[in-house]
Amino acid sequence: SPAILWFREDFRLADNAALSAAARDGAPVLCITILEPEPQQGAAHDWWRDGAIRALDAALQEKDGRLHVLRGKAEDLVPALAKACNASAVHWNRRYDPTGRAIDTAIKTQLKSTGTEAYSFPGALLHEPWTIRTQADKPFQVFTPFWRTARKLGDPRPPLSAPDTLKFASFPKTDQFHSLTPEEFNLLPTSPDWAAGFRETWEPGEKAAHEHLALFVEDTLRGYSEERDYPAAEACSRLSPYLRFGHVTPAQLWHAVMQADASAQNKDKFLAELGWREFAWSILFEQANVATRSLRPEFDALPWRTDPKGLKAWQSGRTGYPLVDAGMRELWHTGWMHNRIRMVVASFLVKHLLIDWREGERWFADTLVDHDPASNPMNWQWNAGTGVDAAPFFRIMNPILQSEKFDAEGEYIRRWVPELQRVPASMIHAPWAADQEALKACGVVLGRTYPHPIIEHKLARERALSVWKSFRGN
Ligand code: FAD
């Protein structure tokens, strides 16, 4: 009897422990994935998921198999499908969020009660979250000791190669459910089609992930630690959506980086970034509500402003601060934003506009192709100062200085804010402070072709600090 292989956010054939185990048993495998109603995913995530499903289906078709797509509650579908095809076992790679874990535990219990085995495997993280704990057996609240402890565990397991041979089971003939066609799973935008920039920028799938990774370790990694903060330099890996959808595993990245011809400093810096991803997951593992509650609960009483116009200006990249606007437009166009700029725009929303970090978290959740339920809220809370091991609230990023420092020539700004195409570096970081006639000669009239700043930096800073002081006084 067949084994069911349930793909979740692990759309790959290599280093897939569940797949290798299913294939090792020699049983025919029925490959499925399920579009579950909860949690609802963002539109950008769905765009990538469509590509991830198609790419994996194509890879399985090359081996004469298929990926079957179902829609519904996994608690209902998996046991029913196991029964319908008389499966001997169901295999999956673990998920680590409390809600997903609860669903998986319930399914496991149900399967076992009907005599179907359920096997789960590690894969999405370098180390299982419960293996990295303080001496008092508590989860870490601070990154540095977390990462020191994780590194003491040594290298993660060596990645598995894709199984050489796979036998496939056919989908059971039943009225209960059917394998959806791409039109039926309907994950792409229709009208308007906002995904043209995504298609230009990305190719989802395992093959593309490994091409990206190869380029990164052969080239970009060598300058990573010095250049990663410069958004125009293309000096980071851009692997985040590939990791998010499990096209590539952190263990594969770890070993590829360790074997690369690059300095220890570059390698350590990159691995530490993977460490932040692990840290974020270790927090979500313990706490389901990281996206809705401040990890430092006293911050939930902060008097955030309700400012729909400000929020809209931020979302659409029309704040009048060129670096902020460039980031928000890069996000809208490509579904991705450079890390340094994510920090700048997050600080701007939370400190300059005093808008609740959850508004920003939600916008990112809808627009990022790499939206990650652990990393996104953790980073928002870090920047807002409401999280564990976070930058303090009173540390307010200056978007003009950030611009001068990290995009000195204005190259990144010009890439994403075409209205400022002809503005030289001397005026581009703060166009309102420039000689307006000179600006006009570059085709820019503030308030007409490009917005005035929606708030003055100094005022915004004073307002944030005064809210912070009175709030602390409570
Ligand atoms: P690289 O610099 O090449 O890093 C390699 C990998 O390390 C990344 O792919 C990512 O998996 C991990 N990583 C790097 N920095 C971080 C970090 N600060 N926190 C957690 N993991 C990290 N990252 C997401 O993957 N999904 C998100 O939803 C997300 N939301 C963010 C929201 C805000 C407000 C901020 C400031 C950061 C957010 N990040 C998020 C972290 C980071 O910006 C991205 O991981 C990074 O920009 C992805 O680009 P890269 O793959 O080139 O990164």
Task: Walk me through what this model shows.
48% of the residues lie in helices and 5% in strands. By secondary structure, the chain is mainly alpha-helical. It folds into 3 domains: 1-123, Rossmann fold, CATH 3.40.50; 125-158 and 206-286, Alpha Horseshoe (Serine Threonine Protein Phosphatase 5, Tetratricopeptide repeat); 297-473, DNA Cyclobutane Dipyrimidine Photolyase, subunit A, domain 3. It has a 5-stranded parallel beta sheet, with helices on both faces. Helix 5 packs across helix 12 and helix 12 (264-286) packs across helix 17 (375-384). The mean pLDDT is 96.
Oligomer: single chain
The largest sheet, given as strand count, sense and whether it forms a barrel, is: 5 strands, parallel
| Share in helix | 40-55%
- Return the CATH topology of the largest domain: DNA Cyclobutane Dipyrimidine Photolyase, subunit A, domain 3
Structural class: mainly alpha
Low-confidence runs (pLDDT<50, min 5 residues)?
A: none
**Discrete helix count:** 22
Strand order of the largest sheet: 3-2-1-4-5
Second-tier CATH architecture of the largest domain: Orthogonal Bundle
The number of distinct β-strands equals 5
Hetero groups:
flavin-adenine dinucleotide
Provide the CATH superfamily of the largest domain: DNA Cyclobutane Dipyrimidine Photolyase, subunit A, domain 3
End-to-end gap:
65 Å
Strand content: 5-15%
Secondary-structure element pattern, one letter each: EHEHEHEHEHHHHHHHHHHHHHHHHHH
**Cα gyration radius (Å):** 24 Å
Number of domains: 3
